[in-house]
Specification:
Number of strands: 4
Radius of gyration: 10 Å
CATH class: Alpha Beta
Order of helices and strands: EHEEHE
Strand order of the largest sheet: 1-4
Largest sheet: 2 strands, antiparallel
Strand content: 15-25%
Shape: globular
Oligomer: single chain
Helix content: 10-25%
Length: 62
């Protein structure tokens, strides 16, 4: 497993959940209602890029 650096910009995130819908093994909504990368998630999955591209506010950086 080769991890890819993935960050969610909490300032930009609007908590729409598109990343969670597209890549539930990697993303989740935190207690603040904003997206975050799950602890220990395999960020090399193809769906990570799809989630980043689908984010309406471009809050996910890969």
């Amino acid at each position: 497993m080769v991890s890819t650096m993935v960050e969610v910009d909490k300032e930009k995130c609007i908590g729409c959940g598109s990343c969670v819908a597209l890549c539930p093994d990697v993303f989740e909504l935190g207690s603040d209602g904003k997206a975050q990368v799950k602890e220990g998630a395999d960020t090399s999955k193809e769906c990570v890029k799809e989630a980043a591209e689908a984010c309406p506010v471009e809050a996910i950086k890969v």
